[in-house]
């Protein structure tokens, strides 16, 4: 470079220079499809003008395989230990790796400092690949790992145009089936409790709700949508708000089983019978769904299959790192129980 700087340009600087996100830069560098020609040209020009050199040698510096992969959870300890989904996915990934000699390392990455520390750990070649669970929309870690050319597979995805390999469920279709069931059983005042708005999984489940409500009733009134964060307490608070706004409420679709359990608690405290007065449907079909009172009607996402698929895709990426990223979407299924 000619500006007198000694540090090499970073991926973030290339992205800023080209006016795009760092994920787009990663897709251009890795020759992934789906990037507009003009955008690709702008990124290539930025790379040339800044003198950016992709870190193609990062993996080679590590030498031979470590026979270890990291499972990264980007949530707090409280959520990790409280929500059945996380223990199920850890078990499923472990089962997917059981026939190999690969060691599974579990780590929580919740802050920028922890993210940087993990990147340095990965850059040192201490793992052959990374599995990530519960990724939020603004999380740069998948792109940082892609820059290192480290095989990475996400559980879920950050957006509809995710480039990194992922395994996901049909969240839109699952939500639609839940709301369709409520409509078909005569419910007419149907609310929803959503997950965090910065998570694509929550956006998809909300979209499924909205699509089916529009199909049945012609419009979606925003006051019937209450924000949660995939915790039981948020399910309680959101349902309480919905009851205040809409005493005529006769059904709740919660975007997770644990929020549905919170909804059941609030409804019971308000003297509403489930399902006679208000029907409740969750999402996940976690073990919790069979232990609520009444047992929870819910949308099953195949967590066991998801975990095994994540392990399988990661192993394939490790064996053939130059192959195209893999995108896998698994089917969901409505499980009918007593709550609806």
Automatic annotation (TrEMBL):
Organism: Streptomyces agglomeratus
Protein name as it appears in the record: LacI family transcriptional regulator
UniProtKB keywords: DNA-binding, Transcription, Transcription regulation
Organismal lineage: Bacteria, Bacillati, Actinomycetota, Actinomycetes, Kitasatosporales
Keyword Transcription regulation: yes
InterPro entries membership: HTH_LacI, LacI/GalR-like_sensor, Lambda_DNA-bd_dom_sf, Peripla_BP_I
PROSITE patterns given in the database record: HTH_LACI_1, HTH_LACI_2
Coiled coil segments of this chain: none
GO molecular function list: DNA-binding transcription factor activity; transcription cis-regulatory region binding
Gene3D superfamilies per UniProt: 3.40.50.2300, lambda repressor-like DNA-binding domains
One Pfam short name: LacI
Domain named HTH lacI-type: residues: 9-63
């Amino acid at each position: 470079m000619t500006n007198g700087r000694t540090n090499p340009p970073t991926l973030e600087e290339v992205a800023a220079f080209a006016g795009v996100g760092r994920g787009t830069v990663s897709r251009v560098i890795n020759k992934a499809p789906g990037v507009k020609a003009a955008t690709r040209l702008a990124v290539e020009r930025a790379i040339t003008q800044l003198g950016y050199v992709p870190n193609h040698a990062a993996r080679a510096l590590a030498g031979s395989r470590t026979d270890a992969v990291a499972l990264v959870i980007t949530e707090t300890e409280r959520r990790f230990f409280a929500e059945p989904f996380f223990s199920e996915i850890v078990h499923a990934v472990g089962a997917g790796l059981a026939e190999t000699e690969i060691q599974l390392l579990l780590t929580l990455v919740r802050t920028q400092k922890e993210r940087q520390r993990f990147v340095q750990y990965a850059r040192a070649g201490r793992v052959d690949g990374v599995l990530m669970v519960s990724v939020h929309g603004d999380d740069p870690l998948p792109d940082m790992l892609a820059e290192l050319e480290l095989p990475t597979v996400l559980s879920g995805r950050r957006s509809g145009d995710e480039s990194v390999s992922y395994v996901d469920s049909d969240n839109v279709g699952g939500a639609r089936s839940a709301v369709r069931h409520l409509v078909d059983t005569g419910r007419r005042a149907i609310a929803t409790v959503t997950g965090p708005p910065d998570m694509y999984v929550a956006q998809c489940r909300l979209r499924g709700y909205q699509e089916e409500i529009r199909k049945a009733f012609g419009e979606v009134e925003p006051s019937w949508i209450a924000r949660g964060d995939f915790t039981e307490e948020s399910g309680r608070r959101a349902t309480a708000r919905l009851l205040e706004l809409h005493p005529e409420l006769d059904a709740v679709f919660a975007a997770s089983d644990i929020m549905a359990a919170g909804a059941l608690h609030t409804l019971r405290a308000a003297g509403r019978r489930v399902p006679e007065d208000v029907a409740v449907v969750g999402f996940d079909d976690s073990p919790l769904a069979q232990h609520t009172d009444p047992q929870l009607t819910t949308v099953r996402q195949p967590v066991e299959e998801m975990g095994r698929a994540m392990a399988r895709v990661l192993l394939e990426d490790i064996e053939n790192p130059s192959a195209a990223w893999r995108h896998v979407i698994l089917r969901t299924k409505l499980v009918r129980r007593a709550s609806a």
